[in-house]
Here is the input.
Amino acid sequence: MAIKIPILKVGRVLVVPIQVDMDDATVLQLQDSILNELERTGARGVLIDISLLEMVDSFIGRMLSDIAAMARIMDARTVVVGMQPAVAITLVELGLELGGVDTVLNVDEGIKLLRGEFVLDDDDAASANEGFSFSGESFHRS
Amino acid sequence: MNHINHIRIGDVYVRREADIVKVRDRARRLARDIGFDQTTQIKITTAVSELTRNIYEYAKQGAITFSIAERAHDLGLSLIARDDGPGIDARTLASIMRGEYRSTSGMGVGLGGTRRLMDEFDIDTAPDTGTRVTVVKWLPAIVARSSRDRILSIKDSINAADDDSLIDELKQQNHDLIQVLAELEEKRVELEELNRRLNTSNSELEAANTRLRDVSQMKEEFLALTTHDLRSPLAVISGVINFFTSGRLGDLTAEQKKMVGMMERNAASLIELVNDLLDASKLESGSLRLDFAAVNLKNVIDEVCETMEPLAREKEIMMGDFLPADLPPVWADANKLRRILVNLISNALKFTGRSGAIDITADHTGDTVRVAVSDTGVGIAPEDLSRLFDKYEQARSRSTRNEKGTGLGLYITKQLVELHNGTITVQSELGKGSMFAFTLPVADAKGQGSVTK
Here is the structure.
């Protein structure tokens, strides 16, 4: 009954747009998928877009922290983007600290931050120009 | 919070993980319908999520009751989360509320955070009585005033929707029941299979046991046979040595006497060893027969002391017996009793240094006689005491490795004492000496002991 959250690869960054309220199974499955994709693609950054997420409770907060910590061990940096102001207020009142997670305002800033993290070698430049691939199947924007 | 009036809207049961999302969704819609702004909606949703998660995690099931809270002119949304779970003890609760508690699944902010997100917070919990958390979020006064009637009427519309959810609930319960039944059936089949496998392995175990017994018996028989065969040539050897020492083959030179003496001593210890082995194997196979009779203990002790006397004199050890005059006869096999005493006294001699002392005492209480052999020898380390009567113990123990012997002596002694329905005990202190004591039954007036073996 878990909903599948897509993981997109853009250059050497995995983009994870979370668009629905997730149950716990989905959260755990997402955690697994991100780590598997990191291993499969050798991506160096994870960008989690929560701009459509209306609620971050302690479980989801912990999941975000965990993903960041695990990704760090796999040599990738995690950035959470697009948190709604109301969610931010709630997080602070709840007393939740997203330890080890970088947050930025929007996707553009997130990509910029992650790009700055690793040196753009030839390989990087090449894959960045390729467009983006979706779960391994690559197709070009037209 | 007593003066708050809760106008119940509906309940949502929490039984599955997916129910957390369901409760969240319900809370969000209600908060919106009542007229909370977006930030507050999110706060309420998050608080409900934490409460529901706690129910699911710690109590497995429970329910969330949604109500309209009314206090004078104030209106708000109230949530009651209740479960029959393990509850929280006062200390843990205090630590949770201070924000010091570390949860294994969330981030330990659930209850404390909920209190900060809501306006009213009340928790009623104790170990084994379940938990009931009541929280309220008040509407801004202006919203409450302007849409009071609309808010109070929300009750009805949601209640109508609730009927559906009741049927759903029933359906779900039915479904759960069927699932539980299926699981039970599965368990039963599994159990049957397990039983069958257990039976098989049981019979296998039995077969293995029988084989083991056979092998053990073969070993004993082999030991008995070989030791018996060893004894015959040894008897011949010691006979021949006797010829030399008795002088019947002419006088020996000093060198020859020394050599023959060496042969004699070694042949004697070989015979002792073979005898030990033979006795041990007989004891083990249960083929040792005791010839019980009323025995005069004093005579046997005197006799044994006499044969041991030369050895004691050689080491300048004082050996004496202290026996009361009224010692009754004991019910024993005289030969085996002698063997017990010889073993204990020769052990004492072996482990007692020059100019030591060995005492043999006896006393009787009721229908047992207790004989004790104490020495002033090296003593036994406490950690060795418990294994002392095990087979081949001396061979294993480091402290006595320099002494000759098979280590069977005490094992045989203990078995023999037990065949007499007696017990043997030891007290010892390292460097001070040891005392071995054993009991024997008194032979009664009819000349019969209580021995049945």
Notes: Chain A has one domain: 7-116. Chain A touches chain B through 26 residues (CB under 8 Å). Residues 120-142 of chain A have pLDDT under 50 and may be disordered.
